[in-house]
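Prompt: I keep going back and forth on a fold encoding question. Comparing notes only helps if you start from a blank page. Show me how you would write down a chain together with its backbone fold. Please set it down just below, with no commentary around it:
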Amino acid sequence: MRNNKNEFVKPGGLDLKDRLVSIQRVTKVTKGGRAFGFTAIVVVGDENGVVGHGLGKSKEVATAIAKAVEDAKKNLVRIALHNSTLPHEQKGKHGGAKVFIKPASQGTGVIAGGAVRAVLESLGVHDVLSKSQGSSNPHNVVKATFDALLRLRNADTVAKERGVSLEKVFNG
């Protein structure tokens, strides 16, 4: 899908770890009363540049989580990282949620909350600063974080897009 280093990945052969971002009890009102169910948002990643997110719905919590993990494995992407952080700062948006992610120096840690933290830790980023603004809806925050991550470009990609050498990208 993308021509820079962020591309879709097949899950075969990867050691994926899943993180539960959110679980919600939902209700459907029917003629016979209320029918309860669950929705789960899960982020999976190999903590080495591959990450994906998924949504699962079921009458039971365990099956909702299992469905979310399967969905997440179908949406894996590889993100270009720079050592233990990001190549540059970036903003992402989805619905009413806005996410700002910024590289940090070695030893800073993951300064992020909730859904953003789950995505960045699954990705394998160890030093990053982030700010989530607008809606705190976990669905939209996860998708806004993915929007920001998919917009990241490393130096090799920039040089290739401009048709210049790597030295010219840094030296002007």
In short: DSSP finds five helices and nine strands in the chain. The chain has a mean pLDDT of 89. Strands lie at 7-8, 17-30, 33-45, 50-58, 77-78, 90-94, 97-103, 110-111, 128-134. Residues 21 and 42 are 5 Å apart (CA to CA).
